[in-house]
């Protein structure tokens, strides 16, 4: 047994906890539900490709940081998930037909599962060990988790804008 940054190790690093897999898969389900509900963007190809690439890079970066228990990226994940709850509740309340109710309820349930998974993740040996900032070469490989994050980002880049029927116009000329 050794001590690494105040956390006792029994010859090997802690395994990846199941809770972080719950976060990853639940996040993917949420993104799929949003894509089904809102459809694919209808922008030009360049805009669509840029959106997909930026979405994949940002979500992949945040995902890697969450798995590595990096504070700022954990805060970003919590904020996104809590906003997801608010959006899920709003979607459920404003659902116009039974299919939308099912999509919104599924998305809300998956967001709840992701929140529960992230809360449980904070109490794992992996999380505690990651807070000691070990080398990224140490421990279990996180590539598959980050790949799910990249897929979530790609789907986010594909999702079309919300069509809520609001027509907002801002007149800066004062007329």
Keywords:
175 residues; mainly alpha; globular
Topology:
Elements lengths: L1 E3 L2 E3 L8 H21 L6 H23 L3 H24 L3 H24 L3 H6 L12 H16 L17
Antiparallel strand pairs: 1-2
Determine the N-to-C terminus distance: 75 Å
Question: What is the helix content?
Answer: 55-70%
Query: What is the general shape?
Result: globular
Decide which structural class fits the backbone.
Answer: mainly alpha
Q: Could you list the spans in which at least 5 consecutive residues all have pLDDT below 50? A: 1-10, 165-171
Instruction: Tally the helices.
Output: 6
- Give me the count of strands: 2
Q: Compute the average pLDDT.
A: 87
Tell me the series of helices and strands, N- to C-terminal.
EEHHHHHH
Q: Could you tell me the radius of gyration in angstroms?
A: 19 Å
Quaternary class: single chain
Give the biggest beta sheet: 2 strands, antiparallel
Q: Strand order across the biggest sheet? A: 1-2
Content of β-strand? under 5%
Please give a structural write-up.
The chain is mostly helical and 175 residues long. It has helices at residues 18-38, 45-67, 71-94, 98-121, 125-130, 143-158; strands at 2-4, 7-9. The N and C termini lie far apart (75 Å).
Can you summarize this structure?
The protein has 175 residues and is mainly α. It contains six helices and two strands.
């Amino acid at each position: 047994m050794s001590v690494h940054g105040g956390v006792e190790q029994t010859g090997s690093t802690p395994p990846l906890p199941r809770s972080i897999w719950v976060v990853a898969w639940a996040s993917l389900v949420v993104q799929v539900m949003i894509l089904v509900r809102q459809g694919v963007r209808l922008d030009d190809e360049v805009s669509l490709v840029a959106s997909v690439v930026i979405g994949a890079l940002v979500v992949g970066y945040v995902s890697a940081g969450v798995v590595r228990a990096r504070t700022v990226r954990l805060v970003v994940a919590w904020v996104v998930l809590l906003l997801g709850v608010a959006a899920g509740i709003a979607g459920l309340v404003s659902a116009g037909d039974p299919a939308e109710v099912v999509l919104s309820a599924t998305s809300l349930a998956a967001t709840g599962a992701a929140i529960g998974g992230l809360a449980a993740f904070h109490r794992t040996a992996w999380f505690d060990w990651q807070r000691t900032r070990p080398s990224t070469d140490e421990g279990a490989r996180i590539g598959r988790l980050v790949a799910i994050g990249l897929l979530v980002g790609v789907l986010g880049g594909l999702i079309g804008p919300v069509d809520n029927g609001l027509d907002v116009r801002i007149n800066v000329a004062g007329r």
